[in-house]
Amino acid sequence: MCVMEGCEKKSLARGLCDKHYQDKKLREKFPKKHKSNKGEVCSVENCSKEARSKGWCISHYGKHKKYGTPTGIRRYKTGGACSTESCDGKVVAKNLCHNCYARVRRHGSPYKYSDWYNKRYEKIIDDDGYAHVYKPNHSNARKSGRLPEHRLVMSNALGRALHENENVHHKNGVKTDNRIENLELWISSQPSGQRVQDRVKWHMDHLLREYQSACILEVDKEILVATSKTLAELIAKTLEELNYGNS
To answer: For residues 155 and 214, what is the distance between their CA atoms, to the nearest angstrom?
Structure first.
């Protein structure tokens, strides 16, 4: 608090509040501080300027604050490769790129990240019990950059992105067990209309076109094609016998 009697304001400088400090500054002159380097010359070699702080002149003291040494010079971009492992950035300072150099200044190491950054890449469990991972460049990723881990595993196994009407089922019912051996690809859509032959044709074409890669994980391709043809002939013959061909 202000040292003036009866004043309850917070002190600003020299133990006085703003009002009393300005009053005393106008009416009385504060004594100047003693210069510790008065009459001395800058300690930097070949510099004849007057020393002002820590034995340096104003110019060399400014370089010390900016670069860490009184004889420091401005660091220019060299365009070389960053010395940090697995980093393809260009050198800006101390053989580091801009991002790595910023992490060194903030965290002391180019390999350390903030807690917020690390949390973004952590695996999380949603309210329904499914695990989500951060893959912003994946075709099935949401606006947040995350997608369910079981869909990511199935997508990698098929070598393509999953369609909207495709679901991934956990065989053992454990939603966090996302091993490919525990996952099955399901489909929930069907064509519009009530004609039996239209539905059969759509299902056969869809299975042969979209799910050969999925079925081939467990069934040989030749066996799959032969079985599909036999099944198609059997269905067509059955529909003909039931007189569905013209209905």
So the answer is: 10
Q: What is the pTM of this model?
A: 0.41
Bridging pattern class, strands 124-125 and 183-187: unpaired
Angle at 118 between CA 115 and CA 122, to 5 degrees: 130
C-beta atoms surrounding 191 within 10 Å: 11
> Maximum distance among all alpha carbons in the chain?
117
Helices (H), 108-242: 115-120, 149-158, 196-210, 212-215, 221-241
What is the total residue count of the chain?
A: 247
* Ranges 41-55, 66-80, 145-159, most confident: 145-159
Any idea where the domains of the chain sit in the sequence? 39-73, 75-112, 120-187, 196-241
Burial of 76 (0-12, 13-18, 19+ CB in 10 A): exposed
Tell me, what's the pLDDT at 177?
92
Report the b/e string of 40-69 with b at 16+ CB within 10 A: eebebeebeeebbeebbbeebbebbeeeee
Mean pLDDT in residue range 22-41? 72
Please state, in angstroms and rounded to a whole number, the distance separating the CA atoms of residues 46 and 152: 66
Determine the pLDDT at residue 208: 67
Q: Please state which CATH class domain 120-187 belongs to.
A: alpha beta
> Average pLDDT of the chain?
79
Rounded CA separation 243/247 (Å)? 7
CA distance 53 to 37: 7
Distance CA(98)–CA(91), nearest Å, equals 7
Average pLDDT over residues 98-114: 88
